[in-house]
Every structure is written in C-alpha cells, then in structure tokens.
Queue: 3 jobs
Job 1
Amino acid sequence: MKIAYWNDEIETMPRAGLESIQLIRLQKLVTRVYALVKPYRQKMDAAGVRPEDIRSLADLQRLPFMVKNDLRDNYPFGLFAVSLDEIIRLHASSGTTGKATVVGYTEKDIVTWSNIVARALVCAGAHKGDLIHNAYGYGLFTGGLGAHYGIERLGATAIPVSGGNSKRQISIMKDFGATILLSTPSYALNLAEAMDSLGVDPKSLSLRVGIFGAEPWSENMREEVERKLNLKATDIYGLSEVMGPGVAMECLLSDKGMHIMEDHFLPEIIDPDTGEPLPPGETGELVFTTLTKEALPIIRYRTRDISRLIYEPCSCGRTLVRMEKVSGRTDDMLIIRGVNVFPSQVEHVLMSVDEVEPHYQIVVDRVGNLDTMQLHVEVGEQFFSDKIKQLQGIRQHIQKEIKDYLGITCKVKLVEPKSIQRSEGKAQRVIDNRKL
Ligand SMILES: [Zn+2]
C-alpha cells in the first residue's frame, strides 16, 4: 500500500529537525505572549520566568500552566494576542458548567487549521474525490466548521449535514454515496441502530472510513462500530481551546495511537496531582502548547485528558509522536468508595458482554455515608424477551466482570432496548446524584 502524506517533509522529518523547529516556534510564542497577553505575563512574572529563560524544549516546564478557568476568567476576549479587527472567526464551548469559553482565529489561523485538518484526513486515507459526510455539529462548536474547512482544503467533497435527524442523514448518505463519515463515536452507533430499524444494510452504502472524535471511546467500541457500519473506524483528537479537531489523528497503520501535529502543538504528559512532567511513555494528563496560533496562543494547557505518548516509530513512516487513545478525563473520573472509576473502563467491560448493547448510564448516589454505583444497561433485542432467570444470569455476569476489572461492587439494572436516551453529540454517561 502506497502511503500518502499531506506534507511529507514535516510528517516524516527526523526528530532532531522537528525539535529544532519546535524550539524556535516556542521561543517566538513565549516572547509574543509575554508582550501581548497581560494575564499570562502576570503569571510568568509571578513564577519568576522571562521569555529569554526558554533556551531548550526542557525549559517549557518552567512556564506556568493554563487551565479552562483562565479562559473563563478572561471571558470573552481577554487572552487574545491580537486586536478584534484581526479576528475573522469566533467559536465557543457550550458552557454547561459555568461560563462559556471563547476562542478566536485570525485569517492565518484558519488557513493553518484547514491545512492541519486536511493533513489529518489524508492520514485516515482520505483523498480528492472522497465524499465526506460531516455529522459534527455546525455552529459555535469547533467540530463542524473545523472539519469542513479541512475537507475543502483537501479538495474532497464536503457534505455539511451537521448533527441530528438520523433518518435524513442515512438517506443522504445513501443517495450521495458518502465514502467517509465524520461524527462522534456514540452518534455513529446511533446511526447504525437507525439503519437497522430502517432496514438499510450498511454494506449497501459506500462508506469506507469513519473518523470519530470529541469524546473518549474504547477499543471494544471501535470493533462494534466497525462491524455495525462496515467501515474502518479511526480516531481523531482535538479541543477548541487548543485549536479544534485535528490536533492528533490516527493513521491507517497505527494500532496504538494518533499522530500529534507536533509542528503546531507541543505535547507533554504530567502527573495530574503534582503537575510534574512524567518520563516518556508514562500515562498521565495531556498538556498542549500551541506553536503557531496567532489569535489565541495557548501555553501549557491542561486538557484533563488521560493519555500517554508513544515515541516508537510508526509503520506509516510518520515521525510525529503518537498519543494513546484517551482513556478518560481527570474530571470525569469518579471516585467511588475510594476507587477511581472511568466511564471508559465500564464501557470496556460492557463491550465484552454479548447480551448487552453499548448503551449505558452510570448512576452514582450516596446512601447514608456510602457511595453506590448503579449501571443501567440496555439488553439486546433478541435477549430481552428471555426468561427472568436468564436475565438474572446476565446481570450477575456483568456484576462479576465489573468487580474483577474495577474492584468495585455495583448494582446492574437491565433496561429495555432503546430506552436510554440517544445523544446527537456527546453521550451523557454519568449521572452523579451525590451532594458533596
Ligand atoms: Zn502512523
């Protein structure tokens, strides 16, 4: 198989060359931010670090972190490094918990981002001539428009469907002959289910690759999506604070992780409790510094995503470091009776149980002083009518698997097929009723 690259010079550059580009860009960035972004200059002054102290990539760790609250505290435009005249686009997070975070882009930022997304699409095997069904939400969320501009930059055909109305999505997919699907993984499963109820065989569609992101998903879920939609499922990573989709992308040959677009985003892994950088290869919280962004340069942004960096060469020939599939979020992490539980771990267990569907909710409560965890899981259509005794067997089986894998006792409630609310975007996996 001939491997295609969007920018082969950068994507296959020996690491020493790449690191010298990163250092030059980092020094320029820190100088610029220090001069132009007052809240960050104050943080640097408080930490006793000046731009000229950054002499090597290792000096990065002398710089203070940025967190989501820095964006909120400086709402809406307080961290911008350019005047509003230079901004040609704004995006914002939904702000379900507190104030929204606003991000801005200059004309050059949009060009850079489009090229990054085009590079990511090529990484997943996309090319001119592909019809790309973009089911990421269009609007203030970066997913829809971010992917859209990359598709056009690549020269493929963008189908800007956005989210919602699965029935219409499927007929468009079918009639137009879409070859690539972009969506959240949970929405992809949603589409598979809708196809099933409409009697549409995924094999009758032209879908070849799915590019799924915006929420953590397990390897087992990948198998499920691949089987149900008859395509190769790949993982894309991004977050609006850093840029949007395309920060990292899985290639078709990697079996462990996504290539980070390192000439634009400098990654680190830190211990989420102490903030100390961890040795290469260890699992911890992912931190990003943007190297080329003009409007909203970001230094050491704590993503809250749990991952690890893989420096071993990839068989695709790209030298860009890979990040392992995000296994959870530090702020999604549930502490139940002292045990750390990630929804993705629960998902991993459920995917290994044949009789249930990958639709679930974790309900956490506190009874007296004791945390309780209840799992609501959908039973497959073909098993639901089974005898009570058999359902009891399934329930006990799940309880045992969870106990073995997570070391925690939970109640399992089997619910009717299709009774758990389907998401159009990110799935709500956890309901935490504890008043802490
Ligand atoms: Zn690769």
Job 2
Amino acid sequence: MVASARRQIHLAGFLLAGPVVHSHAVWRHPSTTRRFTDPLLYEDAARVLEEGLFDFLFFADRLGVSSQLGGSRDLAFRYGSQDAARLDPLPIISFLAGKTSHIGLGVTRSTTYYQPNHIVRSFTTLDHLSAGRGAWNVVTSMNDSEGRIFGQAKHMDHDQRYDRADEFMEVAFKLWRSWDSDALVLDKANGIFADPEKIHAVDHKGAFFEVEGPMNMPPGPTGHPVIIQAGSSGRGRRFGARWAEVIFTISRSTEEAQAFRADVRRQVVEQGRPADSCRILTAVMPFIGRDRDEAIVKRDEHNALARPELGIATLSSQLNFDFGRYDLATPIAQLAKDSAVPHAAREKLEALTGDDATLGSLGQIWSSSVRVPQLVGSGRDIALTLAEWFEAGACDGFVISPAYLPGSFVEFTAEVVPELQKFGLFRRTYSGATLRDHLGSTAPSGRDAA
Ligand SMILES: Cc1cc2nc3c(=O)[nH]c(=O)nc-3n(C[C@H](O)[C@H](O)[C@H](O)COP(=O)(O)O)c2cc1C
C-alpha cells in the first residue's frame, strides 16, 4: 500500500499553562522536571512535539479561580486544582513561535469575556510572527467565578453565550477580511504605504456588538487562525460545525467517538461545508512501558497522586455548580435527575451515568484524567489502539494529554510516532509550512457564511 495515499492521523499536544492538565497530578509527579512558571517547560514540550512532527501544540485556558466548590478556593489553592493558577498562554505561544519552525501553536480565548478586536489583533500578529502557525480555540467559558473577575455577577446563560459567540465570529471575520491580501504596498520610492481602495470599512451593528473597523494591521500569511472548538452540547456542536476547522472531544469508547464524529460531520455538511474541512481529534492519555504490565504500574502510580476531591473541584468549576453539598456515595444517575442541579449540568451528568456509579468515583476519574481515556501498553500497543480508533472512523487524530512533563511527550514521540509511521498513518516529515498545511485543510470555515 502507498503510505501517502492513505488518510493520515493528526496529532496535537495538550497543555494548560498551569500546575495540572487533565491529570491533576502533573505538577507533583516525580517525573515532571520543571515548574509551570518556567518558560523552558513549554520550550521543552514544543521542541519534542516538533521532533515528533505533531500538527500543533495547544493550550487550554480558564480566566479565574473557581469558588464553585463550597464557595471557597482553599482546596483549589492547597492542592492545586485545574484552575488554581494559569499563566496567559498567548504570550507563551508567541515565545514558542520564536523557538520552533513548523509546529502549529494554538491557544484558547473566550468569546464571552473578550472583544472581537482583542482576538483579531492578537491572532493576526501571531500569524505574522509564526508564519501561519496559529490556532484559536473558541470557548464561551465555564463558570460564575470567571464572570465575577470581569465584573459580572453571573456567567451568561449557556445558549446565549453561543449566540454571542456566533456574532463574535461574524465580527471577527469582517475585521479579518477588511484588508485585501495585497493592500500593503510599502513602495519606498514613491512613499506609498498602503492602497486605501483595498482596505474596507467595517460597520457592524448586532444584538451583542457594535463595531466600526477596519482592523489596524495587514493580514498575516494565512488571513486568520485555524479555528478550534470543543462544544459537546447540541448548541455547542452546531456552533462548531459552522466555524471550526478542528474539533476536540473526549470519548470513552470507539462507539461514543464514532457517533460524535458522524453527528459533527453531518452538521458540517448541513452548514454547506465539505465534511473533511473539520478534523475531529479525540483526547487520550498514554502510559507507555516496555510492556503492558510496566505501563499499568506507571498509570496506577500516577492515579494514586490524583486526589478525588480535586476532581470534584474541577467538576464543580466546569459545570458551574457546587457538588460539595452531596455525599460522595451519591449515584450520578440520581444527580442527573436532581432539580437542584442546573439543566445544562444535568444534561452533562446524564451522559456520565453509564461510566461511574457515584460522585466519589467520578471525582477520582476527573482528578486522574477528566474522563480522558488512559491507554496502557508498549509504544506499539498504543499505536495499534490509536490506529484502530482512527480506522474505525472514530476520529481524524488525537490530542495527547500528558501525565508528566515533558516525559509523556518524549515517550510518545520516541515510542508511538515511529510505529504510526510504520503503519503508513503518520507523516515522516512536515510537507508544508503552515498549520493549515499540516491539517491538510484548505476549505473555509463558517467565515464565508458570515
Ligand atoms: C479537549 C477540550 C478542551 C477544552 N478546553 C477548554 C478551555 O481551554 N477553556 C474553556 O473554557 N473550555 C474548554 N473546553 C470546554 C468546551 O469549550 C465546552 O464548553 C465543553 O466541552 C462543553 O460543551 P458545551 O459548551 O457545548 O456545553 C474544552 C473541552 C474539551 C473537550
């Protein structure tokens, strides 16, 4: 079989610029070599992922320290929850753009707490600095604590956040398109800076934004960042299908992932886009040993460092509800029906009832991995599992979530990438320069529908 003719796996490395990732044990794991405040931690990670020919390195983000669990932040600070501390990842990827040459660099920014012009200016600058390697994970944020640090008593309602996000994207794309690609002239001899005919006014008036433009800089080489999204609700998926070029998901089984991908691809087509214009990447947390037994020991040692109460803190932050008021033995099925739990959170718990019987066991899973499947085995075992998911149509690639840093990425690059290459499922060299080249996507996102 000719390797280049086959559909190829896409890979992203997942980080938070904080003490933990999906694993709440990252900072205290003996194999983690640097603090999250040390820029070399991120440089090491980016370099090893670039060696592994990853499509991109990605940073999630959260904007405030949650007090959803019992109205207090003590537990988050004492033990280091998912949002106990976060550096701003945008300066970090700007720093990494200068330390790397090919790997894509993605960060999260919220449409609820920023303005379109913040996003347009930052990501256009990044497009110039990184020569087309930037990506933006569009989120609507999660909880009241994020609202309060921006002076809002309550976080906006779920569906309204997505309505705002849709209009946010429309405004952002109007600004991104306000300069033609050849508007900048820089004719030194005649002293002509730019062609005003090729720079177009923006005058947007909508339900959430009134914006006058154009943007105040020429577009970068790719015009706008790769758009990433990770919505899982009906409204979130509809938003993703309209705008996203990459969608992240967390699925516990091939069947769950297949159903998600099929649904998103159907909705992408409904939005008038080719199904392959959106890559669906599912998250995994690998534990790699010389054999399966050694990998299981690694996983178990890791999970023993993840406190269940931290998992409940993160769950409370993510679902914007205080789960601390329930006994740990409370069945999740009961919580999913409890009218005291807000509707959006009940919907999410509903999907978790099959997994875990009680709040306590869900807390342990959340602390170990936020439900990201933990894979154990040799490099070849893991590569075989990934190939199986990929070939079953469960995803277009994987988000690799580390258990320790940079070791998880080092092991994956050394042990799994060569196996995927042997299967003919992963590149042996970067064939293009921009992130869109790596993703093999030229198709437009919802900007043309805007
Ligand atoms: C892999 C992954 C990464 C995510 N990263 C972030 C993030 O960095 N910041 C954030 O506020 N939400 C993040 N989310 C949450 C999603 O944006 C989304 O709100 C969540 O999946 C719930 O879906 P819904 O908004 O459609 O209800 C992430 C979700 C997933 C699955």
Job 3
Amino acid sequence: MAAEAFVALLNEQIAHEYAAHQQYVACAVYYDADTLPQLARFFYAQALEERDHAMMMVQYLIDADERVVIPGVTAPQVEFADIVEPVALALQQEKRVTQQINALAGCARSENDFTSEQFMQWFIKEQVEEVATMSDLLRVVERSKDDPMEIENFMAREFADEEDSDPTAPHAAGT
Ligand SMILES: [Fe+2]
Ligand SMILES: [Fe+2]
C-alpha cells in the first residue's frame, strides 16, 4: 500500500528517469561519434544509473502491490552546438529531477505515507551528488572547450574508478 497521489507521481517519475536514460545515451553517442571516448563512457554509465533509478521505482511499486505503468518516453535532444551543450543540458536535467524528487517526498509526507517518504530519502541524497558532479563537469568542459584532450585526461583521471555498488541503494527490479 502507498498513497494514491504518491503512486501516480512515482509512475510519472519512472517516465522522467527513462527519459533521462535516453538523453544520456544520446549525449554518450554524440561524444563517441566525435571520438571523445572518456566523455562517452561517463555518459553511457550515467545512462545506466538512470535506468536503475527507474527500475528501483518499479520494484518499489511492485513490492507495495501498486500499479506500475511502463511509460513511453519523450525523444531526447540528439543535436548539440558544441561539446559543452550536452553537459549543460545534463545539469539542467539533474536540477529538474531534484525538484521532482523533492516533490515526491513532499507528497508522501503530506499523505502521511511514511514508507514512501523513507523510500525517497536515498534519491534525495543521490540528487545532491548528481547535481554536484554535473556542475563540476560543466566548469571543466567550459574551461577547456578548446582543448578537448584536456577534458578527456580529466575524465580518465577523475572518473576512472567510479564505485558502482552502493549497499544503501534500493533494489532495482530485475537485478
Ligand atoms: Fe535519476
Ligand atoms: Fe541523474
């Protein structure tokens, strides 16, 4: 059982997370086609994280015995003016998702759905990290946009051993 209003909002969020997945794949492909493999690798990995977020929400609704509707997804932006634009877009997207996650936690609280409110806590923490990562990356990409190899070296150095398993993360459906 979860509050009806929360279930409706979480189903919408599943669509936003899948859209974020598609957007990050599009960013990765843009960099891959431009032979910037480190930027590409970073965005391919981010894309998988977004898919995981969607599947964590799916699992939560299944566990709560609530209706899950696997959504269609808005088409991502695939054309970019320069190598800065995908990162700027990603930062905007993470800021928007942060608002959505906060709205979900707020909804759960106002419905006295404390289980759902607790479920959202991990996502609140995750969004702090994702916004911080994308703002750092935007600064680096803006600073070195005329020297992409500098950016590639930075990515290889700073994001080489991103740890993947977070034992506090909610369980993702199918894993
Ligand atoms: Fe996400
Ligand atoms: Fe994200």
